Amino acid sequence: MSDRSPAPGALELVQALVNTVDLESGADALDTAEGRARFGLAEADLAGARELRESLRAVLLAHAGHPPHRAVTPLGELLAAAPLVVAVDTADGSATLTAASGGLLASRVAAAVAQGLVDGTWMRLKACEAADCHWAYYDRSPAGRGRWCSMQVCGARAKMRRYRAK
Asked: CB–CB of 161/47 below 8 Å?
């Protein structure tokens, strides 16, 4: 739904995962083989991936100053079991935190969150405040106070509702 550019670096994975479901229509990309393949998921992994997605959405809502959309397993609990390793580049000595077993979605998400923390970008990944949207977007506004995934859609709807209420 967003007309914004994708989140920087590894946070694009988090943004893409949260945006696999369209809350307005109910369409879930994880229901398709193509949608699951994008994240390296088998059908047996769906319940865990959906739980992770909704926990991420709750955190992204918190980044925007909003309460969780529903009761979810805390993200910290889901990522606590995600194995990570420190990979050191022998050429320049730089180090990165990576998923220990490349295929585990929770590990890749944990590594993306850790990288976002290091880069200072994690808190700018937010969820749209519109109750029928909650689409993940990266807030590039100077003050970091963006409220909607799209000013042309969700922002315009909210402003029109406020105007009509007057």
From this structure: no
